[in-house]
Amino acid sequence: MSSSLLHPPSHLSPAVALELSQSAPAVLRNVPSTNGTYSISSLWTAAETPELWITYEHLMLSCLRTGDEESAHLCLKRLTQRFGDDNTRLMALRGLFQEAVAKDDAALKQVLDEYESILTDDPSNIPVAKRRIALLQSLNKPTEAITALTKLVDASPTDAEAWAELSDLYVSQGMYPQGIFALEEVLLITANAWNMHARLGEVLYMAATANDSGSEKYLAESFRRFCRSIELCDDYLRGYYGLKLATDRLIETAPQASRPSKGDTGLPPPEIETVKRLNEVATAKLSEIVRKSAGGEAGWQGYDEAEVIAAKELLNRDAANITR
Amino acid sequence: MAQIPIQTIHRDPQLFYWILIPITVVMILTGILRHYATVLMAAMPKKQELPAIREQRSLLRGVNLRMNSHNISPAAFQARKDYLVNAYENGAFLKEPEKKGQAAPNPMTDPAAMEGMMGMMKGNMTMIIPQTLIMGWINAFFSGFVIIRLPFPLTIKFKSMLQAGVATRDMDPQWMSSISWYVLCIFGLQSVFNYLLGSDNAASQMQQQMGQMAPGAGAQMFGPGVDPHKQFRGEAENIAVVAHHYTLDGVEKRLLQSVKV
């Protein structure tokens, strides 16, 4: 079985997911269907490993993504054989399968009802609670999803995944202060996650562009968040992209920002000299990343293609402004 | 140099087939049996109720805030600090808020603690019962046999270890009695079980003894007999005295110094 099946499949590109799911029948044939723990034959067959079951789970997710419901069902069946019907994680997986094969909204509503009946029986079933929230989102009920998520993070406040999801939901509703709060919670759990620093920078930038009150403060913090994310991860494309956007805007609004902030506890606004130099650094770094990644140089691959294109776009826009 | 005469004892070769091999085989089979008995008897980890999860994780949240407070701005930290300290002092996250002031329950009367102890009892039982039976079996049938001669010389100190049950003063310590073979099997079959059952098997009693000496450190934090409200109050104090530093202070200058284009 391929090792890429051991990684969570959520961020695989569609091509890789398709390849994985096409390999599903072969994988399912090669791996023994039952691995009975208590049978005599387990004395001489290879011991079952956690990796096997992780493979099944990820294979199932890839298959559902590409519409191979038959293989997905087989994976689910084998997992159920091994772990039983009442395993919380499996209940969530089964719900996911039903969501995937559901034809219309009525069928999805039925799945939702099922989740709710499971949760009334056992409110501590966190995987199913998360599925229910995801389903509420896909049924386009963000307010209900937010209510359910706030309940979930109240019960389990160390769940970074839930906080991040909550922040995304708040941001999608335009409630930036709440989204920022939730992202700060994520950072309290995973202190050195540079992608989370950059994400917080993005949300702060959005908040700064969206409203007028306190937008300078948001912008300054957003700028510093991007700096921190680059400090934690060299050559981080998203960080530099955000840094460039934030510094551009800081330079634009510089005249107003230069007045002394009146008695608030936050950091002083960044010096305009530093901002300008960092803007140059970000521009240079972005063009370096775009050039080297397009040239396919060793050590410069692995950037997301869409992100590189977006960076190129940003640089072009900049160049157009100068020539004009 | 006086050569020490090599002791020769004429043994019935049948001893080898009818004592040495049976003891070894029985020991291996008991180990396998014990492994499966433990697997069968192992209770599923008990599901925690939602309030209990909330209690533990809320405490962890405070710990996280204390450890990673440098990531958030002073204002955000102050808001969280005020909220958490207040909630901790009032016992807002407690599993059983009405029991706030009471002393910790006696672990013997707490059903959750009893369950843990029952688990330990079961583990011990699977170890003790077969051990007693086999020891009795060997004592009854094979005591006093000298079964093999080790192929290397040993000093006299090994006599008590290798010749248990054979009270002969002058016999060379190379000779080994059946009971000593049994004891050797107990401690020496670990690698055989690893091969047969995988490395995390429950066949060997060595691991069980280790487990008893250092019961899971994670259980200590929320174990029975610890008053959660006291833990919360301690954590509230810890948070209240944290001196807050903000990493983003001066990050732009640090970055300018470190980054090279």
Secondary structure: elements and pairs:
The complex is a heterodimer of chains A (324) and B (261).
Chain A: H1 14-22, H2 24-30, H3 50-66, H4 69-83, H5 88-101, H6 105-121, H7 126-138, H8 142-155, H9 160-172, H10 176-189, H11 194-210, H12 215-232, H13 237-252, H14 254-257, H15 272-295, H16 305-323
Helix pairs in contact in A: 1-3, 3-4, 4-5, 5-7, 6-7, 7-8, 8-9, 9-10, 10-11, 11-12, 11-13, 12-13, 13-15, 15-16
Chain B: H1 14-41, H2 50-67, H3 74-90, H4 111-142, E1 146-149, H5 159-162, E2 175-177, H6 178-188, H7 190-197, H8 205-213, H9 217-222, H10 228-240, H11 251-258
Antiparallel strand pairs in B: 1-2
Helix pairs in contact in B: 1-4, 1-6, 1-7, 2-10, 3-10
Describe the 3D structure.
The complex is a heterodimer of chains A (324) and B (261). With 324 residues, chain A is mainly alpha-helical. Among the domains of chain A are: 66 residues, no CATH class; 108 residues, Alpha Horseshoe (Serine Threonine Protein Phosphatase 5, Tetratricopeptide repeat), CATH 1.25.40. In chain A, helix 8 packs antiparallel against helix 9. By secondary structure, chain B is mostly helical. In chain B, helix 1 runs parallel beside helix 6 and helix 1 packs across helix 7. The relative contact order of chain B is 0.16. About 3% of the residues of chain B have low confidence. The interface between A and B is large, with 39 and 43 residues.
Total strands of chain A: the figure is: 0
**Rounded radius of gyration of chain B (Å):** 30 Å
Unreliable runs of chain A: none
Biggest pleated sheet of chain A: none
Strand order of the largest sheet of chain B: 1-2
By DSSP (H or I, 4+ residues per run), the number of helices of chain A equals: 16
Helix content of chain A: over 70%
Overall helicity of chain B: 55-70%
N-to-C SSE string of chain A, H for helix and E for strand: HHHHHHHHHHHHHHHH
Give the structural class of chain A. Answer: mainly alpha
Q: What's the number of domains of chain B?
A: 1
State the major sheet of chain B. 2 strands, antiparallel
Largest interface: A-B, 39 and 43 residues
Number of helices of chain B: 11
The protein's oligomeric status is: heterodimer
What separation lies between the terminal Cα atoms of chain B?
82 Å
